[in-house]
Fold these 3 entries.
Entry 1:
Amino acid sequence: MKLAHLCGLIRFLPWLVIFSSIAAIAEPYVPPAGLRRPVALALADNDSLLFIGNRSGTISIADTAQDRVVAESAAASRLADIAVHNGGNILVADDEANQLLLLARRGTKFSKVASLQLPEHPVKIRVSKDECFVALLWARAIAVVDVSDRALKLRATTPLPFAPRELLVVNESLIVADAFGGNLAVVDLARRKVESVRTLPAHNIRGLALSSDGKRLYVAHQTLSPIARTTPDDIRWGNLIGNHVRSLALNTVLSLDPDLLNDSEVSLLRVVDNAADPAALAETADGNVLIASSGTGQIFFVDEMQQLSSPGLQGGRRPTAITITKDNTRAYVADTFGDQILVIDPDMRRIRGQIALGARRSLTPIERGEELFYDARLSHQGWLSCHSCHTDGHSNGLLSDTFGDGSFGAPKRVLSLLGVGETGPWGWNGSFTTLEEQVQQSIHSTMGGPVPAHEDIASLTAYLKSLKPPPALSIASATRGQQIFNKHCAECHQPSTYTSGRTYEVGLADEVGTARFNPPSLRGLSQRAGFFHDNRAKTLESVFIEFQHGFETAPSPDDITELVTFLRTL
Amino acid sequence: MNHRLFLSCALLLCCVGVSIASEPKRQTSSTDSLIDRAFTVIDLVLEHHVDPPTRQEMVLGAVKALFKPAKAGDIIGLSKRISTLSTAEELRSLLRTRLEEAAGSFESPHEMEAALVRGILSVVPGEPRLASAKEFKVDQQLANNRYVGIGIVLSFDTDSRFPRIQDTFARGTAHRAGAKAGELITEIDGTNIHDMKLASVIDMLRGEEGSHVTLSLRKPKETETRKITIKRTVVPRETVMGYREVSKENWDFTADSSARIGYLRIKEFASSTAHELRQIEKRLAGEGLRALVLDLRMGVGPGKLQDAALVADALLPGGTIGQVQTTKGLRKYEADEDCLFRDWPMAVLVGEGTFGETEWLAAALQDNKRALLVGQPTVGHAYSVMPVPTPDGGALLLANSIMYRGEGTAFHGPNPFSRRKPAVWDMDGQAVIREAVGGLKPDVMVELRRSRPQGNTRQNSSVKEEPPATFYNLKEAASAYEKVEPKRETGPNRDRDMTLEKAVELLRSRLSESAG
């Protein structure tokens, strides 16, 4: 050691002593009991990990040297995502108040610098230089926001033809994934223009990541086959539902090539072990990909040869987000329902420990039901959860051949469960008079699991009844459209739930001859992608143009326009 | 071979100890209850068969069957008489009379019931079969690739009069527990099984998943025995085979190593088949293969339509697979965009053995221009058989649907239930393909011919010249065939698989075109 360095050290010695004394005296921070439900993580610098509690609306700071929480600050009533801005400030998305917040960090404290009201609901933030992009779920748009040290300014809102969730900035482009279905859009950031929207044979896309060489785009998602049946055998052999990590050629994604699957590789996440609902993925510096199997609480590794580690690491209850330190020594995983952060050694492929967030309070039936809703362990061999098809309580928009209508052979559209508590009877043919019956049927027959306990059914039902319909995409006034609706549609789709308790024959028999259906609720209709029991109408307009649904004679184009305008406000 | 044996054994399990109506309680059944059961079968046929005969026809079949054992009886005018009967009661009355008359001709009520049901089903198209509860359970296990056992094939050793382990399956627990092919089983769970019927032995070996069975084993010419305890588990069998088996259940899938062309043979459809293909694709891609021969020259068992559709979906990058008409409605099957062996040139081998669901799959691959069909015209058997549960827990296996091509066009022949080959050969052995009705027409024909009149009935092959068409120009390839004179193959070529050779040749050509 050089003399000058030694002198410098001696000069700071008193300060070191003082700080050491304070550290020795200060009580370590003990997080209070509560329910956080961590859903997003960010590494602020080499020494601190930030994460948010969705349910607590708090931001926590963890010391990565000791792997423990050192501070926690309330920021909002609910939080959906967190990102670190260039200057070290923090951006968080409040998906209850629909706000983007800019917070300044001073040590372990945060102070609000600016907030920005956004359309419904900000669920994901990605930062690039002096701007950030926010996925607005129900508004079906991307907000482009200027970010400075002191302010947030909405620069543009780019509409999308689907509800977005996952975002990834690649050079001058933003890749946007569908929150429910398989759409993948590329937005040109310079021109604020949607360059392409293509559809993968996929749904429940959770996790976009670039390969370490920057040539591949990894997409974690599921697939659902309308040909397979919800039998234990089709579940067991991976015919019904697939849990995938798809590797796409980035050049193809960024190009306008209509064939998104050109040079695509699909690897089944599940080989010999339980996996369901892949929820996050990240690549280590040495090319291994970590995948969170949120439905079964496992972490899998896929190496460069696409060999899957099996069994996966079992350490959490619902891992939903992953971040890896730059030095590749640690991967942090948000275990949402375990209310903890898992610390993983990517080299050794083992769990190093957990960062405890505080004692969990006892759960309400709704909270317990929510955990069951996302739990694939209810299903046959852990292949799927309720969320696998009813993504986040909504719908993946696909067809599934269940025994819910009393027969196989006629796949039906997966119904949204948002608002389902008020729309009985249940099932496409209205055969379930209580939601509890429907829940039992879904778990035991559709998912192939054992008959659920009474308490589980009660909790799941309580959770389903707590789900509100999605907001309408449009708030336009549509008086004439409403009049047309009242005349032609309201008998079966009765306000305010826009359904009724009976079944009706409307000339749309399915493949096994069933012609009477219970009318599905029209609330949140604008947030759906297909119509009728088998998605035979691809647009709302075609419901009336092609099928004259509700009309004895063909409605006029004007009437259709007015009616559709009204329906989009429901 | 192992798998064939396994299936044989499984089928043996299905058949042994089972007759058409073998429940003991039935042996004391009255005539009325016998009639009830006959009409249960008749009603099931009427309800579920896609093209059922009339009730009168089935009763006529039953009545005729009752006469056979006695080799007597006047059946002249019976058809006319039955045609005049219109109500179920009238038919029941007739059947009751005949049953009472025929009672003395049968050794037991059980035998009479068997004849009765056999007679009913003899007039039902599609070779229906009544499976007992026991058979049905095994059928289901096989169909779902969930066969529960210890994974051995048995034969009877006539010298020692003990059952001999003919073979063990690599994925079976007996193999893992150390049981060896050739060993004799002398005791099962402590019971000496000397001279015991094989069917009874199999019954003792079978049991619920997770249960255990203890075997005493010895080598044929030794006296020392050893005991092993084996857990009964699901013994998954492979439904997709490769080019050659290099070791037990380990296949070499390479048909042409220099051109890197793979070969798969779908032996049967099960719910595991698409899964197997997904696994094999990974392996073949890892081995650097880039083109594929898919051999579909075999039929499949009942209840496989669903599994065939899943395989078609796995192999197609979108498009319509086909349509299926049942008694309840019409369903169109669509493939999603994901596709195994994506962008690999593919040739599908078809022939007389390609019928039913395999024919439907081949048609889907042809219609979507996913593959070139190489081989011989197919039979045109477009009816799919499904099990219909019976009240006693068994099943009636019936043709309950008709398969169509994607555009809704039929491919079944004039008599789709017949396995008879289409009339594609004239007396000189020349092809008359244009006169064939039904079935699939290969894009590239490879002729199989019977050697007449030298008395050699073995098939040999001849291959036509490569058609002057590009690989994907299928229509041209097919039409070009009819102008080409076939060549006879004799002598050593007799056992060559000329259809496969032609497919490989076409794929090599295709790969060369791509490389160029």
Entry 2:
Amino acid sequence: MPRRTRSRRSFLRVVIGLAAGSAVAACGAPAAPTAAPTAATPAPAKPTEAAKSAEPAKPTEAPKPAAVAEATKPAPAASAPGSAAKVTVKVFSNWTAGPRNDFMKWVKSTYEAENPNTTVELVFTAGSDPFLQRLYTEIAGNTMEDLAMMWGRDACKFMDKGAFLDLTPLMQSSKFGWDLYLKSDPASFILGGKTYGLPHMYTTPCIAANITMFEKAGVGYPKDDWTWNDFLQTAQKLNKPGEQWAYQAPLVGYNPTETWSAWVWGNGGEIISDDRTKSRWDMPETIEAVQWAVDLRNRYKLMPEQSDLKAMQGVGIDPFVGGKVAMLYSNVGGIGNWGTMIKDFKWDLIPFPVSPKGKRVLWNSQSGYYVANNTKYPDESFKVMQLIVGERGMKKVGAIRATMPSFKSAAYDKEGWLKPPPDHINLSVDVIDGGRAQPWSFKKAQEWYDAVIKELDYAALGEKSAAEACKAATAAGDRVLQS
Amino acid sequence: MPERRRRYGDALAGYLFISPWIIGFVFLTLGPFLVSFGLSFTRWELAGTPEWIGMRNYGKMLGQDPRFWRSLFNTLYYVAFHVPGTILIALAASLLLNRKMIGQALYRTCFYLPSVTSGVATAILWMWIFNQNYGVLNSLLRLVGAPPVPWLDSTRWAMPSLILMSLFGFGPTMVIFLAGLQSVPRQLYEAAEVDGASWWARLTNVTLPMLSPTLLFAIVMGIIASFQVFTQAFVMTGGGPADATLFYVLHLYNNAFSYVQMGYASALAWTFFVIVLAFTLAQLRLSRRWVYYESEAPA
């Protein structure tokens, strides 16, 4: 008996010792968390500050003193091999497949070839939600990769929390300026006069058209100044219930800016005040535009049901790519996929119709790259960022149709992004000058969107009139903005 | 003395064997539990330091967040139909499958299969079943001359759609009832037959009373599980249209991971805990009136 007790205890001692040793070996010394400089953090800039600092068509009002420069030359190689310490810069993105993944690999191979002492480690998480979940967790745990891509609406939640490195000094010393980029909402990158990120992807809306359907219906390519009524008449000719739909656009439960703003702004309406404190859905021009958009679905029956779309997309079926939709309202991010996947019909971009007030005002938005505030290699991380968001990287991105580049010379590159197909790719950039930034780079943006969507869904489903739904959306949106 | 040392050694050995579970529970369950309680009194947006704001999150919930009340109403609506519906269908299925018949095992397997299918795959399948133009349900309705229903495209029908879908997951409850039915003594049925009791009388006077503890378990667990409904709305409707399927847990998820309002989301989580606990305690209290335990029967 005593012998059995001793052997059990000695067994336990051995097991505990092994477990403790394994735990210590696995965990290692935790990195001391860098305190977010909350005390010194600048007070969050009011949206008016950011909006004013980047009025449309005035890129020179971007924050000084960054001078105009060309960031085209390769980053200088590190000093003689063997003499500088090895550096690893981690880059986090969700570009996990296709041309986008090819671009990330190009970044790695190009930078490492030009900087032998640096390793670029690519870190991926596929999908938008899982990517954001991981990024948020890393920001909370102060373990964000050196460089990460992010949409402005997400980045603005953390800019005043010390999550990102202030790039202003680095931009000054490298003469890398805002003048090089297409304009959008600077609040996605700038807070309190400091730059925390640089633009990468640029997005504008577009209407992709099945030109083969147009030809079969005897409908010619639309003129640039075609009107809302012309659009309706064309759609009615193209609509064949049970066979094909004339028009597909997100309407129910979708981002209200992308869904409605093209109609609303063109009609002279607004959706939110410039200082983001008041919803404007109850403006008569806004209500009129919303009614017009929902009539396309509920009165003229030109669009597939939302549940049809969700069911098809849930099993990987795209109605436009499958040749079931004549006109798809989407964004230029889809151009790469359409070019690759559409084989059975001719397609092209067509202009967005002009409103009865004679205007066409479309939204634009940007995503960007941000450097972690606790990065060990700020200079190196910024250099990698310059390759990604500088002219070389942006021209590469545009040429392989990974996305529309934010860098001006790349977006207007006739041998890159603007090279057909599609024939009218120029429409992607033609809408920029008269366009406006999506109002999404403020902290309550997503909550405001959800409150507004909930009310506008009633109009989209035909359960309430646009007037009733818009008034309710204003009240619901204001509750969020003023809370 | 050696006896005390031996008992101490035995106790230590026991604790050491369960220590992996205790460590996991403390660090992965109890710890976050307590931290979230503290966070519910703060404003915290993931980065930076949580800012103490006292009861303001709870005040916002009760007075300034209409979507809190909407999500609570939607969840109660779902629970009110899902739990009784599932219990009734599972009970009926278990009574049928408790008979000796050819293919009994096959039938039991078929009825149980929907419960083991992935939630996301099931949701996508049902999106096709509910499809207005091509779905099975509307095709059947057209066959009998009824108008098609805009299942997921209507604020009126979206919730009934999700409830209908959820009823097909009665498999686990059915298995629990089958196990309970095995423990009903045969002599009671024989005695009832001798007394000339009809099948309904046998059901209401023998089966249900003897099955009442199992019923209580199924109801309590069913209420707790159905309060946590999330996947169907997240995949199929996103909480829409017009918040018609915005469940409480989805509203909590949105506040935590979309709006990054961790303090408020923690307050929602603790309020949820209190509500579900209240329902559970009420059920246990009411059970004294209708649950029959054989061990309490007079000798």
Entry 3:
Amino acid sequence: MNGYSVLIADASSIITDGLKSILNETALFSYIYKCNTISVIKDLLEDKKIDVVVLNPAMIQNNDDLLHYIKERDNNIRIIAIQYAYFDQKVLNKFDSVLHIDDSISDIKSLFLGLLIRESDSDSEQGENLTDREIDVLKLLVKGHSNKEIADLLYISIHTVISHRKNITFKTGIKSVSGLTIYAVLKSYISLEGFM
Amino acid sequence: MALSSNGLYISANMKMAELLMQNHYCVLMAEHFGIQIPVQERTIEEVCSTNGINVEVFLQFANLLSGVNYTPVAEYTSDDIMTIISYLRRSHQYYLDERCTHIREVTEKLSSLNNYAEVSLLKKFVNEYIAEIGEHLAYENKIVFPYISELRQKMMGVITEQSITGYSVVEYKEQHHDIAEKLADMRNLLIKYLPVKDDGKVRRELLFTLKEFEAELSIHSQMEDSILIPLVEKMESMVKEAENK
């Protein structure tokens, strides 16, 4: 289960579809999402685990709301600009990397490869790291909430909760809530008060 | 999952000593059957005969442990049923008096050597688990086994009324969940995540004893699933048949 997910967001479907087609060829991503509006970006980020977001700089040109939103969901998400119009360097600096409309296919592939390899290096330093979403689910689970309650509290579906729980068990090797509680304390996801 | 699934087919004229040497867990199994060691050169058949055990029943258990498909005993006598219940009661005693006590002691030792919060949490987890095991075994001792005894007495025609009304093996099957799962979680925590300050010997002792318990419970569950539950189902249908006559 090591596949990465990418979200391509641009008002133009020519851009989103074209880039998706190129990224498909790299075989780097298990899931490639695309959308044309900011509200759909937010919906997708709520529900899916996304590693890289490709954005048109126009979406953050006038305010940083979207950037903050993405970083809050998951601080590790890489944000790439897709540029085919003039933008101030200040705006472009807010991105981790910039893709140009006239970049060659091999340039584009190298850019993403470089991003993801760096990421997996830091993964192996840290170990089995759970994603932010998985941590959210874990915290609620060890507090005693049911799957349904967790789904309601996080505004996700029960199916997603169960999926996160399976991932948590898969990554840690721990099945029971009691065991996961100790794990959560060891990783400082929760404090000890209330458990002793 | 047998502890030592060498696939060796155990037969009545095999020497008991050979079985006990080949499959170490059978030493414990023999103890639960009430068999005394040393056994000298005697065959399984001879040893069982001396101890009043139906050799077919013993072979069924031994082959289950060996990972071999053994034809279940066709017709359990009322004595056979007593043998099986005694076996299970003795194994419960062993788990509580010896295995759980050992686990509790080693955990206590670990906790006293590593006086910090996460180890205390582990201790709490261990103690809660042991209490859970105690409840599970008490349930079997107090409800399931007397129920089986009652069925046996009805089969023998000794009694006609049922005092444990409404109970059936279906209920028992529903209770039968994975009680060994938490043991694997404990070992996982100890191996992957829980830091300990001591030189690791106590932790290793705990890991060993947890693993042994996990294996023992797994076999115990298997015996209940493949021997006890079918036996009770058969007894229930025989009693029902007799009642409907």
